[in-house]
Amino acid sequence: MVAEPGSADVTVVGGGIAGMVVARRLAMAGRAVTLIEASDHLGGTVARHTVGGIDLDAGAESFATRGGTVADLAAELGLGDDIVTPTAGGAWLQPAVGPAVPLPATNVLGIPGTPLAADVIAVIGQRAALRAELDAIIPSLWARKSLTLGALVRRRMGSGVLEKLVAPVVHGVHSMHPDEMQLDRAAPGLRAALAREGSLAAAVRFMRDAAPAGSAVAGIRGGIHRLATELGADLETYGVQVQLGHRVSPADLKGVVIMAAPVDPSAGRRIVLATLVVDSPELDAAPRGTGLLVADGATATSARALTHATAKWDWLRERAGGRHVLRLSYDVEPEALHTTARLDACALLGVQLDDSSVIDFARVEWLRPAASGPHPVGDGIVIVGETVAGSGLAGVIRQAEVVAHELLEA
């Protein structure tokens, strides 16, 4: 819905998921809300594109289930019955040297719950596993001084676990190194579990045992982009005045201002996503499970991660009709992305894919915004979204809901 500018209790700048969530919640409570979005569509990186005649997510294709934040919102939007979990294939890891191996079964963001387990040694080697086992005798009080996930893992389990196991997983999930991630943002509850259990490995086992049964991630039948579609419909229902294709100016900022867009759109990390729809009977067996994360320094590929989407989601495999959907992400876009993505898929999956195997190809580019400190409620400007909540739908939606609640309380 496109509306003329008007008076507002609240002005939301940015129509990504965070902006839509906070605008919806405030409008449901009776506030007059105007939402201004510079592009021609709502949803931001939660978007849809069509590749090989299949509607696919152009951004996130799963969400963390912890806390139930995303699932609760999906249920409110009428999507509760369409929440699905991945297949049991599990993810693999492409080490810097050697063949791909399955990720260890018991881990949190790659941090092993049993450092001397055979599947951990297969990734990091016996020497690094023995160093990680020293975690059991290091006092847990050190965690109070840790600012980043990387600092904690390096201190307690050593650089082998950090660089060979945790860094590829964190980069695949958050597109950054663990040294760049605040501990409590990367793994909520880990600090408290460490203080309670006395070692990092025991904390991981505690968190895994305490987690609800089922997968740590989930998706939505038809694609995560359905969240944006349903949120947009609710904005119209609750009377939010949406202005698309509008560059905000000082005159637009009325009432409480919520910044749901990066202050500097050019600052951040660029991520390129290559999507291939291929015809390859060899992939029917899902040779690398649901996909692979790639360790830094791996020479066989320039991709940072590969998702075998049709092996991961039953609903997508049914819609693909025998074809396979592969998603490869890159920090630095290679020349001839189409060809490089195909060759990288061959190397990572251990199959041959010639040009005739590729039915369709698509390229999407996203910018992960640089981190920013939040403005407290009451100062007239509040920041929501990835700049303060980090990457991941669960964190973004949770922070937007908290901000909406605080504004209503204020």
| Structural class determined from secondary elements | alpha/beta
Largest sheet: 7 strands, mixed
**Rg, alpha carbons:** 22 Å
> Proportion of β residues?
15-25%
Describe what this molecule looks like in 3D:
It is built from 15 helices and 19 strands. It is α/β, with parallel strands linked by helices. Helix 1 (17-28) links the parallel strand 1 (10-13) and strand 2 (33-37). Helix 3 (118-124) crosses helix 4 (126-133), helix 5 runs antiparallel to helix 6 (159-174) and helix 8 packs across helix 9 (200-210). The longest helix is centred in the C-terminal third of the chain and has 17 residues, at 393-409.
Q: Could you name the key traits of this structure?
A:
410 residues; alpha/beta; 15 helices; 19 strands; 34% helix
Brief characterization of the structure:
By secondary structure, this protein is α/β, with parallel strands linked by helices.
Write the layout of secondary structure elements.
Elements: E1 10-13, H1 17-28, E2 33-37, E3 48-51, E4 54-57, E5 63-64, H2 69-76, E6 83-84, E7 91-94, E8 101-102, E9 107-108, E10 111-112, H3 118-124, H4 126-133, H5 149-157, H6 159-174, H7 183-186, H8 190-197, H9 200-210, E11 217-220, H10 225-237, E12 241-244, E13 256-259, E14 268-278, E15 291-294, E16 305-308, H11 309-312, H12 314-320, E17 324-330, H13 337-349, E18 358-369, E19 381-383, H14 386-389, H15 393-409
Parallel strand pairs: 1-2, 1-13, 2-12, 7-15, 13-19
Antiparallel strand pairs: 3-4, 5-11, 6-11, 7-8, 9-10, 14-17, 14-18, 15-16, 16-17
Helix pairs in contact: 1-10, 1-15, 3-4, 5-6, 8-9
